[in-house]
Amino acid sequence: MTARQLAGYLNVNERTVLKLVQEGAIPGVKVGSQWRFRKAMIDTWLDDQALGVTPRYVDASRPTAPGRVLTLASCFAPTHVIPELVGKTKSAVLVELAGLAARLGLVRDETWFVGALIQRENVMPSALGHGVAFLHTLRRSPEQVLAPFMLLGRSREGIDFDALDGQPTHLFFVLGLKYDELHLPWLAKLVHMLLQPNAVGRLLDAPDAGAIHQELLEAERLLAPRGAVESSEVGSP
Q: At the top level of CATH, which class does the domain 72-231 belong to?
């Protein structure tokens, strides 16, 4: 797509599109003096916008159905953490994390989950930079994801995950999203917290899975509006 076509697709001004791509906020490639955009990459970028895993530039919000708002504690436990990943490559990390989801009974088909995570990575890398990646599938799959969940794999050494800043990735969050609606409304604020170097450092310094889990629960408590965590309802699986 051209910048003009993308502006129409996003329902924004063409000048806004050019500003975003020049700032590196939106994926595009320059051919001569003209910008060009792949629809698959734009759709993935919009998906990340809606999930809150990238800073919000456009109105990509989706309605959240009543009763489907999850707290962190309802979809994330110490058993969901791999405190030191064995894998040293992108594919090995994806297989390792998908294997944990299967062992915990969170997904119906481990092979499907590995393939779905790889498919998403092939469209656009999930590593945002600052040592953090948020992995998820391109499409919500209620028949495959048995309950909404979050996993976390940690690599103190760091792994080349094609991060936007070219640096190694240390924290790999896996989101098992069951519905099209946004299940994790705390995620956008949590992302902003994790992009601060001291937050990543605390998670890297945590001695074990339990300590990592507690660090994230505390992050949610501090970032959520007063009473929001306690009043959130758990969605139906």
A: alpha beta
